[in-house]
Amino acid sequence: MVILALQLFGAQYIIDFQGNRTFSKERLYKELGFEPTLWERLFGKFEPKADEKLLPTLAEELRLFYKEQGFWDANITLTLQPPRAIFLIQENDPLIVKNISIVSNFPIDDLLKLKEGERFIIPHFIAFKHKVKERLLKYGYCSYEFSPKAYVYKAQRSVYISAYLDHGDVCVVKTINVQGLKTLRKEVVLSHIYIHTGDILSIEKIEESTRRLYSLEYFDQVRFDYSKKIQNEIFMDLFLKERTKRHLYKAGIGYETDRGFLGSFSYKNLNYHTHQPQISLYYSDIKRSFKLADFYPSLHLFGDFYDVSGYAEYAYEDFDSFKQRATTLSAKLLKESRDLSYAFGVKVARYDIFDTDPCIEHKKYHYLTPFAQIFIDQRDSKIFPTKGYYIKADLESTHQYIKTEGEIGSFFPLKKSVIFAKARAGQIWASSIPPSLLFLAGGTQTNRAYSYRSIYALDSACRIGGKFLLATTLEYRKLLYEKLYGAIFWDRTYLSKKEFSLDSYVDGVGFGILYPSPIGTIKAYFGFDPSDFGQNNLSLYIGASF
Question: Which residues fall within 8 angstroms of residue 168, CB to CB, at 6 or more apart?
Answer without folding.
Answer: 141, 143, 144, 145, 232
